[in-house]
Structures are given as structure tokens and as C-alpha cells.
What we know:
Blueprint: H1 9-43, E1 46-47, E2 56-57, H2 61-67, H3 70-101, H4 108-120, H5 123-134, H6 140-145, H7 158-182, H8 188-195, H9 200-211, H10 213-228, H11 232-237, H12 251-261, H13 265-293
Helix pairs in contact: 1-13, 2-13, 3-7, 3-10, 4-7, 7-10, 10-13, 12-13
Amino acid sequence: MGKKKGMTAAEKREAIWGWAFILPTMIGLIVLNFYPVIQTIYQSFCKTGDFGKGNVFIGLGNYTKLLADGEVWQSLWNTVKYAIIEVPFSVVIALLLAVLLNRKMKGVSVYRTIFFLPMVCAPAAVAMVWKWLYNQQFGLLNNLFHTKVAWISDPKIAWISVAVIGVWSILGYNMVLFISGLQEIPHDYYEAADIDGASEIRQFFDITVPLLSPTTFFIVQTRIIGALTVFDLMFMVMDKTNVALSKVQSVVYLFYQYSFTNGNKGLGSALVVILVIFIMILTFILQQAEKKLVYHN
């Protein structure tokens, strides 16, 4: 057998350029993604010192403490309640808007832009506007309805008020994805339905909904993950002195309190790991459900 030929000069140059192009991405993934994940898992088993130094391994101590902490379970329940409102309402309303704005109508691009605007607004600006709307004394809502409702300081309704902001903020993104999915549905189905005399409502439920199910399921999955990891919205809307904070704060908000306010990064890391495991279990269940609920054309 002849000897295996080595790489030619041209092949070496091509390989070098190939590595040169992918190395920045690989280094970025390792530094910004993989290493922090490993470090977080390691710290979850430690009592951490200042600036991540002087870690003392304590095994499952952080997890035992968290599972026995009522505040952790309350924050998890708060997060689930937020997701229960944000996910279904944002999906259903966005779907209806997408169907309406997928038609040939005057000014359709303007309407799409208006509904998508919340996605490009700075979260801080959104929080300031909604805090003004919800203000108990001078807010637009109370002045409009002649009420004195404590929208974000009443523990009974504060989580609903925050979830409403979440729905409003994500509508445009969901709508754009739905419009993209609608444009992939062959128009022949609707023409055949018109010939058969099917009403628009019947076409919506018998054609649009089934053929749009892959897009719908993708949006539902991503929004569930997004809702379970919500932080910035609650951080900017709910002040630390707010009496309703304990009934609104999410798991990630509590992680921020543990890790950066209290300086207990070990406890915060354990909380994040618990949240990730919870999301992974939920995602696995959704993936199994997809096989039965999603219609693939």
C-alpha cells in the first residue's frame, strides 16, 4: 500500500482559514456559555466566598436549604402563575392579529409595525410607562375608570398586572412568527374550502389551526421557557419596598437576590440548577406531546 499523501499547501491554507473563521465563535461559546454552566453547577455544591474565591464544598447543603425554604416555593408558584397568563393570552391574541393582518388591506405594514413596536422598546422605558399607567394616585387607568386600584402594590392582583405587561410586550414577536407560518400555508386549501361553501370561521379551525400547529407549538415552547425565566420586567416594575413583591417575584428574581444582593452565589447557583431541571422536565413533556398534537403536512 502506498503512503498516505499529506495535505497540499492549498488545503493547509484552506484549513487555517476555516479554523480562523470558526475559532472566535468556538471561543465565545466556551467562555460565555460552557464555562459559566460548569462553574454554576460546581458552585451550587459549595459555600462560596467573596468574588467566587474560597469555595467550600458542602455537597447537597444548598439544595436541602432551598427545598425547605418557603420563599423558593412561593417564587416558583409566582413564576408558574405568570406563565399561565402570559403564554396562552400572548399566543391566542397574536394568532388572531396575525390572521387579520395577513390579509390584503390598506396600511397593513403600518399596523404590523405598530404591534411590533413593543419588541424594540427599551425594557426600562416600558417599565416606566406602565408604572405610570398603574400608579394608584395619578395613573391613567385609575383616572380613566375613576378608581383607586393598587395595580402593582396589591398582592392579590399585582402578579396579574405584571403578566399583562408581559403579554403586551411579546405580542408583536409572536404575531410576526404566526404571519410567517400563515404565508407558508398553500392558498389552494382556502380556495377549495370556498368552493365547498365553508365559512371563514370553519376555514380557520379546519385549515389554519391544524396547518399552523408546528409554528404554534414552537411559539408555545419558547414562550414557556421565556416566562419561566422572566426577570427584567419584574425587576424594573416592582420596587424592593413593594409590599406585593413576595407574591410577584420570579425564580430568577430570587436568584438575583441570593447571588448579588445577599452575596450567596452558592445558594443562587443551586436555585438556577433547580430551575433548569424544572424547565428540562417540562420541555421533555412538551416534546412528547408534540408528536400527538402537532400536524405535519
